[in-house]
Structure formats: structure tokens, C-alpha cells
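User: Assemble these into one structure.

Assistant: Restating your components, then the assembled model:
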Amino acid sequence: MVLDPTHLVKAQDKKKLVVVAFFVFSLFCFLILQFFKIQVLEREKWLQKARAQHLFMVSEPFKRGVFYSSGALSSTHDDIAQPLVTDLPVFHLYIDPESIKESYKESFAKELTESLSSQEGFEKKILEEIYKKSRSRKILSSMPHEKKEEVEKWWLGFSKKNRLPRNSLYFVQDYQRSYPFGKLLGQVLQTIRDEKNAETNEAIPTGGVEYYFDKILQGKEGKRRLLRSPKFPLDRGDVIQKPENGADVYLTIHPYIQAIAEEELEKGVLAADAKSGWVAIMDAQSGDIWALAQYPFFYPNQYKSFYSDKEKLEHTRVKAITDCFEPGSIIKPLSMAIALKANQELISSGKKGVFDPEEKIDLKKIELPGRKIKMKDIATSQFMNMNMALQKSSNLYTASMIQKVIDALGASWYKQQLEEVFGFGKKTGIELPSEAAGFVPSPSKSYSSGKLQWSTPTPGCLAIGYNLLVNTIQVLRAYAVIASGGYQVQPSLLKKIVRKETNEILFERKEVMEKPRVLDEKICQRVTEAMKFVTKPGGSAYRADVPGFTEAGKTSTSEKIKHGAYSKNLHISTFAGFAPAKDAKLVALIAIDEPAYRNVPGVGPTHFGGKCAAPIFSEIAKRVLQYLGATPDDPYGYPKGDPRHREQKADMYLEVKQLKELFNRWHSIK
Amino acid sequence: MNKEMLLRLFCCLAVLSIYLYQVIQKQNVVNYLSLQIPKLNKDLKTLEEENVRLKFEIDCFESPDHLMKLVRSQQYAYLKYPVVKEVISLKEGLALQVDFDKHQDSLRRFKTEPVLAVGVSH
């Protein structure tokens, strides 16, 4: 065998071959190194780039916290909380205009309108959006699940038939505030706007507790990773960060008591032909607010119609919190309590008391200092004691008692009692926005006009509820001092805040075992005794009598200020009271704003608190006490015609009879 | 010798094949299940949504306004408001063990006939 010399590799070629082989090997090594660099050293960088190209993130909505009502009838009763608001899932419909071929755009708009059974205007809207150069346009908000399924069914067929990417139409899930009890507690709850904050994507509350607890109700959005593919459905994908839902707020509001209050208030406001009205009911011992009703009602799911209408706008605020008014005669029992406290303080320091509640006072002899116009009473009776003064709502008697207090202890002492014992002029701290602090004039201060806040006749005006401003909850708090036997209670709407997922209690309001005492128990008993005459025959609010139960209260008809002067036609008529009179369960205030100023034959003027607000209290207290399972403490005190009616055995029968006899004797009436 | 080696090799390969088959089979099952997850997730979400919607409808039915309307109807005219003192609360389960015949004397203090009502407390 002979070797072909041409086949022999020359040494020079060998070298070239080695060089080429080395070069190829080097390239291969470089490639390997490059692979190592890309896949190992720069793994994260390229992974992120790849993910950015193939995957994208969308936010996963959180559930906003909700409000629960209280269901406990007593402290030993199980609390079955019911939701006052529920977050129902809804879907927003989006389209990707750029991925829909031009030739199908019109048929898409037409068929989608048909599948949604919408009107022609909707087709126009789709056409406007579909021709925009965008990858995402929202065309319909807050669709329910059933509607979403209908659209999905249509879209599956349409996209298949026309070979359109499945993701050209997609849904984004969200939650919508829904109200199982409708308008119940509307103003207090309020709602959230349909549109979210464009920057933070957070809900925008319209007011009420939604606004007050907004930070707590807000959760944290999660993240969902989706594959960028025309066939990949957008409602799938991995949740890579779970959303954190908002915490739930448990309110002290009792839905049945609230419903009773709303029902009776509506009847009362319509009967009085008034502009509006509100009712606040509070647990006299704990300060838990059971009901905050207001008429005309506010429907949270129709909030836009309220906020876009000037006339309706005022019905969106919680007037019991935001609106201050001159309380008028409902302040008189508190003035009496202050006078009795002054008596007690003077006697304990060895001095003479300012007055004797049983003493016969001649009202004709009363001279109130500094008054240009003489103060008058509606009743023209000449002689009165404390019981009669409250029963007949005497301005002169009350003002003269407070004048005596001022003479003995000074204006500052009196102002201090109004502020520190009854809490006027200070916010109650109730968990609602825009609470008005009210106003109590100061002896040393002036108004912005330069006029002194406190002049010589001021104490007389304050004693009968003028020259000061209060809100409804402040009056409830003040009446609760009398009802609870001298203790100060803290009105509150909040029971607890709970994070549902973890069952973590973020806040819980504990029952205050040792409440601060601000008034002597005997004083409270004496004032309550006098207040009980108000709701019995001969009293200014006998219509407030609660069948089967004892009660104590006071009515008021205060003139409203219009154009800087007291109006004779515009009033705010109120009744404040508590029941039962001993160991009170509830304390309530009923306010009727601008009742019709009219004279009904056989009834007389109907705008008085005793005529329009007192009957509402009677009905509400009767139904609420029945609902709470309270044992009737006046088992014979039912109206005539009721089989349980026994006039002579009824509460206060004897006392009222004796007071009437005394009144007649003093006025020589036979 | 060669036969024995072949037999051993065959056995090994057979075991390995079976093992590999099982691994692949398991992998298939896992894959199948993992493919089901998104669908099941979607179904679960739909059921949860349905649950929320039904709960909402029950709450609407149990709204105080509606219940008060029902109470006023003739059908429920026999209902009365019990006084708290007349209500005996027993722990769940204990109520069923009470022998009412034995407690006739203590029950006599109630003016009305005691009624056993069953309720659930959450």
C-alpha cells in the first residue's frame, strides 16, 4: 500500500489546522462562558427582561372593610352582628382597541351593544373608544356576574368566528358597596364614590363613618402575574402577592332600634309638615349610640342624586352632629340641677342655699337685671315651685333661679358647670366627621364684632336655653348625667375593630366600670322627679307619656334665627327624655326642624315640641323598651281604653293630683 | 456468565424502566392536577362570589324594615315581645338535655306557658 503524497498533511497545514481548531475551541469556550454569564451570573437581569416581555402584573383588588351593627339586647345577651354594608363583586369591562381589526370594529360595537341589551348611545360610546390608539379602554363599569357571563359567552363565539385575540375584551374585578338594609342609617354610613383616586387607586368616601374610618377600612392591593399571550385568559394567572383586606368596624347601632326610630320619625315629620327631623337614641348607662335617624332619608346607592341637587345636599350630613341649635327649654332641667348643686355647695360651706325647690315663688315680683324687654312665660300663672316650673316650662322661674346662682357664686362658676358637668361647648368625640363643638359664651371674651359675649342678661337667657349653641349628642350626654344618677357617660358609635382574616381585634371599647361622677345622686333624683310631671296630665309634653313605663323629659320650641333676628314662624321643636325614669335604659332626643306654623281647630298650634316631638318619643320609647324586653315599671299607666289602664294606680297619679291641688290653692282656683 | 450478566442487566433495565414509568406517570398526574388548579381556582372564586351574593340576599330579607312588616301581618299576629326576665338562656346542647317535667315547679312562676325556642348564637 502506497500512501498518496497529496493526502499527507503538510506540517504547515497542520499548524493551520491547530490554529483553526484552537480558534473554534476558543469560540466554543467563549460561547460556554457567555452562556454561563447569561444564565448564571446575569440570571436575574435576563429573567426580569424575559418576564417583562412575556408576563405583566395587574393589581389584585382588596376588600374594603365593612360595618357591622350590634345585635345584643342586654349585656348578657349574645351579640349577633349583622352587616350594614356588603362588598359585592362587580366587573369593569375593558377592550384593547389596537388588537381589534379595523374591519370588525363596527360589528364588534353593534353586537356587544346587543349582547348587553343596551341602548343606542352605548354603541356610540364603544365606537368612540374603539378607534382610540390605546391598548386598554374601559367601556362599562360595575357589571354584575350574570351580565359578565353573558358577554363572555357572546365574545367566545365572536372572537373565534372573526379570529380575534381572546384578550381584546377583558374584565377587571372590583367590589361595589351594597346595602342590605337600604336607606337604614344612610347619613351615618354614607358611601364611597364610583370613581377611585386616580393616583392611589383608593376609594373616595363621601362622608359619615366611611370617611371617619377610611384609613382602617382601606386594605392593601395585591399583585397578580399574567402571561402576555392573546390566548391567555386575563382572569387567571398567579397571585404573587395576596391583597390585604381592610378591617371591619363594629358599630353600637342597633338595626331594629334604628328602624323603629326611622319609621316613627318619618311619620312625625310628615304629620308636622316639617322640613326635616332627626332622632338620637343612646344607652343611658354605657353611652352606646343605638340609633341616629334622620328624615328625609339618604340612600347611599343613589348618592349622586343627593350631591348634585342643592336642595337635597343638606340631607347628606348627620344633623345630630354637624348642626348646632339653641336648645331652648330642654335646658331647664339642667339649669335646675345646677341651681340645686349651687344650693348643696353653699350649704356645705355653711352658707344659705339659693333656693328651696318647694318654695312658692311669685313670678310677678321677679326682676331680671339688664333686660330691655321683660321675659315672659307662655302660661300666665303667678306662683310656682320647681315641679310646677318644669311642668309648665316657666322661663321666669328658671331664669330667676340661675340669676340667684350667679349672684351667689359668680358667672364663671355657672359657666364651669355648663362646660364641665354637662359638657357643653366641647365636642363629644363621637366617631363621625365634622362634629360641631357648640358654643357657651365666656364672661371675659368678645365676639369678632367687638360685642361682649357675656352681658348682664346672659345668665337668664342661658338658663332657658338661648345664647348658647349645642348639638344633639351634647344634649344626650347632658341628659345621661341625670338619667344615670350623676355619672358622665361617653357617647360612642364604635364597639370594636376586627381584622377578619387573622381574627385580630385592633380595638375594643371596654365598659368603663368607674365613670366620673359630676353630680350628686340626690340632685339627679330630685330633677328626675320634677321632670316626671312634664309627661303627665297638666304637663307641657303629656303626649310623651310611654304606656307601661315611667319616663322623664322636657320639651322645647325654640325660635330659629333668620337674617340675624329670631323668627316667629320658624322653630326647632324638640323633646329630650329618658325611660324608664329610674335605672334608665335609653335617653333620646327628637328634633323637628321647621314644623308648619299653623293652628289646627281643636288641637291648637301644632309647632310646639309637646305636640310634634313628644308623641314621637312616646312611640319610640314604647317600641324600643318592648323590643329590649324591659319589664314595664308602670303596669297600670296605659291610656284609657286599654284593659291594663288603672288611673289611680298609675305612676305619678297621686303626685300630679297633689301638685294640681297645690297649684289651684295658690291661684285660688276651685 | 454472559447470560447471567444479560439477565441482571435486563432486570436492572426493567426495574429502571418501571421506576421511570412511574415517575413519568406521577409527573403526568401532577401536571394534570396543576393544569386543573386555575380552573378550580376560578370555580372556587365563583362559588365564593355566589355565597356572598346569597348572604346579601338573606340579609336583605332579614332587614329590620322587612321583618317589621312581616310582624304586622296577620300570619304572625300571635307573636309577642318576651320580657328579658322570662327568657332563660342555655348553652347550646344543654337545652336538649333539660327535663322540663322535673322543673315544673320552677317554671310555674312564669305567667305564660314556657316555649322552647331554638336559636344559634355566633
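Chain B has four helices and no strands.
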